[in-house]
Amino acid sequence: MQTAKILVADDEQNLRRVLAALLRREGHEVVQAASGLEAIDHLADVDVVITDLRMPGADGMEVLRTATRNHPHVPVIMITAYGSVGQAVEAIKAGAFDYIEKPFEQDSIRAIVEKAIGQAAESVIRTKPLVRQAGNGRSLTRPSPRSRRWGGSGSTLASGRTCGADTGRGSASGNGVTGRSSRTS
Q: H/E element holding 109?
């Protein structure tokens, strides 16, 4: 299993705590943000983003647009308690890795995060510039901290994405409840 630095952005403190605890148990480093603006400030320092759609300051779509524009190698997983098919389609078209409705199963979020880490690792490997040698035999470029952390390995990703309607409702406490993902594998 690969470990990563994951940003959890949600204005609901309890959900942030539940997600952070779950991700830390999996060996990941977690950064928390209570607003979209705070999340945007952390984008350069993380490998994966999990962000709520509705937050004060800047919403999850603004976090997604900023990440896609400035840090395209960082997968963004959107979560929301107020989901609709239209929002899911908009988020996926804007570059979201996945879109999940609250409440969600812990196993589901674990699996989606692992796929996102794999995509991020693949992206780093694909975009890594060719290493050129200087006259003294020293490299002019070096691997980024992310590529060193992943050791150059990556996961194969599912090629298809679908967005399906889900009318499930429930608590966002994260206490073993189900949610739906728009990604198929």
A: helix 106-127
Q: Are strands 5-9 and 76-80 parallel, antiparallel or unpaired?
A: unpaired
pLDDT in tens, 122-168: 766 555 444 434 444 433 333 444 443 444 433 323 333 333 333 33
pLDDT class of 47 with cuts at 50, 70, 90: very high
Domain map of the chain by residue range?
5-150
Residues paired with residue 51 on neighbouring β-strands, in sequence order? 9, 78
CATH ID of 5-150, from 3.40.50.2300, 3.30.365.10, 3.10.129.10, 3.40.50.720: 3.40.50.2300
The whole-number pLDDT of residue 56 equals 84
Q: Given this model, what pLDDT does residue 139 score?
A: 34
* 63-68 contacts, C-beta under 8 A, 24 or more apart: 63/9, 63/36, 63/39, 64/91, 64/94, 64/95, 64/96, 65/94, 65/95, 66/40, 67/43, 67/95, 68/94, 68/95
| 181 bridge partner residues | 100
